[in-house]
Amino acid sequence: EHLHLLESVSRLASTALQHAFLHERTKASAQIDPLTGLPNGRALYARLEEELVRAAPQSKPLTVICLNLVGLRGINDAYGYRVGDRMLSEVAARLERALHDTLMLSRIAGDEFICLVAEENAGDAIALYERARLEVESLSLEVRPGRHARVRLSFGLARYPNEGQTIDELLHAAAAAARQHRASYGFIQQSPDPQPVHSSSESAKTGTVTLVQ
How far apart are CA 109 and CA 86, in angstroms? Predict the structure, then answer.
């Protein structure tokens, strides 16, 4: 009788542990972007909330950097969303490599990534962007035999508490700055009409998509 009781308790404990494990795994997967493997918007909000609570008492520096891929829509239009997803995945890996020493890198929607850094100096944040830009803009993805596509990277930043004191204020300010940066450099998002490139030394820019041999 005691043996049966122990077996029953053991089975119940095992089941409880399995349920707890599945719960934690489901909770974790709910905060991961399935395409890139990066934290998603839900994870970003949770981390930002933690960082703002930590920063608020002494107004410690916290910078939100918004990174946008310029040209992804053109790739989707010209070659399909599967190719666009490949580009997103490759770019995410390069961003993760370039920004590995920041607080967090997340993909929150479409072609938009958010990076959190504990930097007070805007120059430091710009240096991070330059590092990321070089990684991303050196990527040449083969989209068809003999044809490649590239994207460009625009950015905007918002610093706590100067440009925002809440999560939404910081994200809005960073996104607005990214749009201004895109416009100031003539990054116009439009659908491309790809044409062949006749020389390996030439590049054909169609919209914001650069096609190279």
Answer: 15
Which H or E element spans position 160? strand 152-160
Please check the confidence at residue 44 and state whether its pLDDT lies above 80.
Answer: yes
Confidence bin at 139 (pLDDT 50/70/90)? very high
Write out pLDDT tens, residues 95-107: 999 999 999 999 9
Query: How far is 213 from 210, CA to CA, in rounded Å?
Result: 10
User: How far is Cα 177 from Cα 183, in angstroms, rounded to an integer?
Assistant: 10
Q: Are 113 and 95 in contact (CB under 8 A)?
A: yes
- Helical H segments across 30-151, by residue range: 41-55, 72-79, 81-98, 122-137
Decide: helix, strand or coil at residue 69: strand
Q: Is the pTM of this model over 0.90?
A: no
Beta pairing class for 62-70 and 147-150: unpaired
Contact 99, 131 (CB under 8 A): yes
Least confident of 9-13, 35-39, 48-52, 99-103: 9-13
pLDDT of residue 123: 81
Please calculate the CA angle 135-140-142 and round it to the nearest 5 degrees.
145
How many CA atoms, within 13 angstroms, populate the side-chain half-sphere of residue 142? 3
For Cα atoms 130, 62, 180, give the angle at the middle one, nearest 5 degrees: 50
Most distant CA atoms of the chain, gap in Å = 85
Distance CA 71, CA 188 (A): 9
Distance CA 171, CA 67 (A): 11
